[in-house]
Design goal:
Helix content is about 35%, strand content about 20%. It is α+β, with helices and mostly antiparallel strands and about 110 residues long. A four-stranded mixed beta sheet has the order 1-4-3-2, with helices on one face. A hairpin with a 4-residue loop joins strand 3 (about 95-100) and strand 4. The longest helix has 15 residues, at about 35-50. Bound molecules: adenosine-5'-diphosphate and magnesium ion.
Length: about 110
């Protein structure tokens, strides 16, 4: 079954420049709940599916909260994009795999 998703509707307003930026570093700042985390999570999932050589390393200061923050956020993005059948989540070690290519998102603290 094929479902079409209109990305600007999913991503919301204000992040066009950030979304399309191809520079090496992107810094996103904004007040609490201004969609920074959700938007980068959606963007990483989209870009990994677009670029078959890309992998992702997620780094957070505290290991204990990785699972309930970054990992959960990326899983939310996978579901929001409706591509959960293409991704596999592993908890020990924390890892998300794009099944068609074996690309990975790994997590360190
Ligand atoms: N694209 C989106 N679609 C639906 N809800 C969203 C979206 N972006 C943000 N939200 C809602 O806004 C809340 C705050 O977003 P979040 O990315 O956590 O903000 P920030 O990281 O800037 O503090 C989220 O918990 C979520 O409920
Ligand atoms: Mg955040």
């Amino acid at each position: 079954m094929k479902t079409e998703l209109y990305l600007p509707e999913v991503v919301g307003k204000g992040y066009g420049t950030f979304w399309n930026c191809k520079k090496r570093y992107r810094v996103v700042k904004g007040s609490r709940a201004s969609k920074k985390s959700t938007t980068i999570a959606l963007n990483i999932i989209c870009r990994m599916m677009e670029y078959p050589l890309a992998n992702t390393l997620v780094i957070r200061k505290t290991a204990a909260t990785l699972k309930n923050s970054c990992f959960a956020q990326l899983r939310w993005a996978i579901n929001r994009l409706g591509v959960e059948s293409f991704w596999r989540a592993r908890v020990n070690p924390l890892e998300l795999e794009y099944i068609p290519t074996g690309q990975r998102i790994i997590f360190y603290a």
